[in-house]
Each structure stands twice: as structure tokens, then as C-alpha cells.
Design brief:
9 strands, 8 helices, alpha+beta, disordered N terminus, 9-stranded antiparallel beta sheet, globular
Length: 236
Amino acid sequence: MKAIFIVFGFSMIAALTATSGWVHGELDSRWGDSQSLAKAASSFEQLPQEAGPWKLETVEPLDEKITDMLECAGSFQAAYQNQMTGEVVKVALLLGPPGPISVHTPEICYSSQSYRLLTERKAVELSFTEEETPQSCWRLKLQSKQVSGESLSVCYAWNGGDGWKASEQPRFEFAGSSYLFKLQLAAQVAFQTELEENDPCETFLKDFLPVLENHLVIPQEESSVTKEWIQQFTTN
């Protein structure tokens, strides 16, 4: 499977005032804390090799063009295999400024790689224990337009400091974060598979995320511009 991220252009129209330039800079993390970002990037050096029955099988570098366009401070692309079922899940983890990291979704990626949507994306709650704050991810199912006709389950979510989320407006929701993580998974499934009943990606996440949390340096502070103020400004 090719890299599961693809870059596409984006733009934002800003009013020609000093204030709007500042807001735009905040959204793109133009004046972000590079020291805390570098510290978070260092955590990529020791990501988990095992999580429950899942074992790291291969690691592949992410395309340099993608990491440059997304301004990635850290990236990790690998395949994990379930030692009990044989299922394989491809994992891509990105770290960078909230602006670039938040706006690229797999719906765009796969449509450009000759896949078609079988289901619209749906938010899936990831509950590990009753005590923990619920986390969530987006999930969708795709099918290749090639002769093979393979079907894929794809899940993705962002983390700006308060857990993994299936955000409707990630660019604005995470604008106050000093940096942002994005996690994206892909796994081959049978065409007739009902993902609500059997999804390798969801199973993997429930094993992987509690272990991953022990390795990542999660942002603790937000920038001085509040998310509510940015949301109000950009909708006026």
C-alpha cells in the first residue's frame, strides 16, 4: 500500500489588518513554540513495538514531499500485525503545526489513488475504561477501482492535548494548540465486512492508544488566542 497521506493545497482569505495577520499566524502556528515541538518530536524515537497481540512488522519513511508540505516535526509510518489473527494495520503518525496537520483528510488521499467511498465517514467512540475520558476517531470504508477491488477500513483522528478526537472543524478546534498529532490507520477488509462488528483498525486502536500515550509528549498549554475567539473571527 502506498503512503496513506497525500498533500493538497489550501488557502485562507484574511482581512488586511494586523489583527487578522496575527490570527492567521496562530492558525498556521507561524509563531509556535519550536522548543516544545522539538521535544515532542524526540518521542518518535521510541514508539511502541508491541501493543497487546499487535507486533511491529515494518517501518517505512514518509515521503519527504509530504513531510515538507505538512511542516512535519516528526513522522512515523509502519505496519503492525496481529499475532493471533494475522490481520495487518498500516499506521501513520504525524506531528507538526496545527494548521497544516489539521486540514488533510484521507477522503482526498484515496480518491486520488483510484478508490471510491463505500461508506461516509462516521465518528467512532473509543472507550477503554469507564473512568477514562471518551476518545473518538473518524472511520470510513473504501474500495479500489482496480481489478483487485480490495476494500479498506480507514480511521483517523487528531490530538491537540485533550485526547484523540474525530473533529468536524480541526483547523479551528486545534488552533490554540502549540502543536498537533494526527493518527491515520488503514487495513484491508472483506467487501462484505460490517465495520461496526469487525474492524481491525478499531481493535488495533483500543490496544495501541493506551500504550502510545506513554510515549508521546502531549501539549499541555494553549496559545493566548482562544479557540472561541478564532471561531467567532473566522465566521464574521
